[in-house]
Structures are given as C-alpha cells and as structure tokens.
What does this fold into?
Amino acid sequence: MATLIAGLGAAAPEHSIRQTDAAEYVQGMCVATPQRRVFARSLYSHSGVEKRHSVLLESTNNGEAARQSFFSPPDDSARLGPTTGDRMDAYRAAAGPLADRAARAALRDASLAGADVTHLVLVSCSGFAAPGVDVALISSLGLPPTVSRTSVGFMGCHGALNGLRVGDAYCRADPRAVVLVVAVELCTIHYQYDWTPERIIANSLFADGAAAAVLRAGEPGGAAGPPTIAASYSEVLPDSLDAMTWRIGDNGFDMTLSREVPGLIERETGDRVRRWLADAGLAAGDIAAWAIHPGGPRILSACEAALGLPDDALVASRAVLADYGNMSSPTVLFVLERLRRAGPLTPCVMLGFGPGLAIEALLLR
It folds into this structure.
C-alpha cells in the first residue's frame, strides 16, 4: 500500500490587483524619497508577478483602481498600519471561507464527501485563532465531529510539504485513513508601511490563497493513476538562521528575506537534493516534473542553477508566480495542480524553502 494524492484543489480570493497598479499604490504607503520610489518600482517590475489576489480587496482593477479600506495612508495615529489584533480579526473573518473553497475542490476531485474524512491537517503561518479554521471546516464541510485534527503552524512557505508528510504518516499507520490537508494563507493582511528593502520585497511578492489535498492509502496506479508519496527530505542549513525570518510584531507579522537567500540556495541545495534522490535510485535528469515553490524569480533561477535544470523545467512555477504571487504555503500545491493538468507528472519533486533557512522536499511516484 502507498499514500495516494487522490485529490487536489485550489482557491484564490475573488478580487485581484495588477502588479503595475500595486507598484503605484506602494508609493503613497511606505515610500518617501525619489530614490526609494525608483527602487520600489524596479522591485515590483522585476518580481515575476503580474497579478495578485487579496481578501482585503473590495474590487478588481479592470480599468479602474482596485479598492480596499483596511489600510489607510500612514499618519501620526497609524504610522505603521493596523495593529496585529486588527489583522487577526481580518484573518478570522476570511481564512475559513477561503480554506473551505479549496477543500471542497479537493474532495470533489477525489470523489469523496466531507463525511469520509478521518483526519484534518491544517497548515497556516499568517494567522492564529482558537477555535480556528480547522473547527470551522468541520462545520462547513460536514466533517465528522470525531475527525482527528492536527495543526502545522508558522513553518512558512514549505508548510504544505510538512502537512503532506503528516498526512502520509497517518495513511501509513491506518490504511482506512482519509486525510484532508488544507493550507491557507492571508499574507496581504501583513502589508508593512515602514521602509526597508526587505519589507518592500515582501510587499511586492506576497498574496492570499488556499490549496488542499486528499490523501488515502491505496495501490499505485502507475502513470495514469494518482501520484504517491514515495520519500521526503528535510534539513535546516547551517549558519542560515537570519536568512529568512517570520516574526510577530505589533503591526502584523514581519518578514525578512535576505538578499543572500538565492545564493545560499544555489550553493547548498543541489548536492543535498541529488544525494537524496540517489537514495531513491534516481538522478535529477530522471525527474519528469519539478513543483518548486516560487518564492521569487531569483529563487527559481537559483534552483535551476543548483540542480542543472533545463530552461522549461519551472514553467509551472513561474506561471503560478505570475498569476498569483507568492501565497506562502499553498503555492506549491497550486504548482502541483498546474503540472498535473499539463501532462506526465511522475516522478515529481516538490521543493520549498522556509525560515531557517530550511529545505523541505517530497518525491512523488
């Protein structure tokens, strides 16, 4: 028996904003000097993002400015924007409905109902509430009240891979298990007003979204069947603890992303991933599809260089970055779902990076 990824689903908020308009918006929020304005516009234009979705938007900018009322222009009374408490109120209101949409899509894809689910794994790093999104999903999806719940919290962009690993363990322990893994992030509620290059980079990349996967035990169906989870890999790189951080501040959660991250990934990832694949009897050239989390264009380029990938290997990752931005943990599942639609999926490597700097990977057969 193997753990099958029997269903996938993804959901984005209703409204979106073009990156060109987001670049203009930032000018009045956290960019003060002409030099900084030029730098911010350059960052936004080279982000690889064309459009992003947010639960805070009240309209989509189809020919007119996208509207939102959550963030007011900075002044003496709100110099750094809404408080963390205000932002958590926004999370509580919007995270559950968005997660519900992704979960319903995954259950439909697996031809299962909420009542069939035995285990629920919730992944999120952008908000906290108790009772939380997991409890809301029990009600909205009709899950059994006895469903076993696990929360994977504050692990960042690779969190969905951790959630899938937990689901795999449940399926291996109990062949009757049906595990619903749901990743939901509302990154835009943590928009930062203050000027630092790291904050402007984060503001230019992050977006909101949710994705889900249904796991169950079963016999592998070959190339035509659902992919199976064959192996996993996890490592925190040495001397990297300041490369990427995600901390709770008084005005939202503060992301720092060092400019050294792409170089660190390029230097440290290739040999580690190749050794892990060799343990499974594979080389990088044997991999049919790469579902790499699109943390940004430089990170994707660093992965290509580290692993010696062909030019077209990360088309799906770049397309998701362009269409949705970096949604943190759900993003790699958006990439996997797009790869599944495009053609042969396995063997597939799912790869993501997060605070630490940590590497997480899954091998699908």
Notes: The chain has ten helices and 13 strands. The longest helix spans residues 84-109. The two ends are 13 Å apart (CA to CA). The chain has a mean pLDDT of 93.
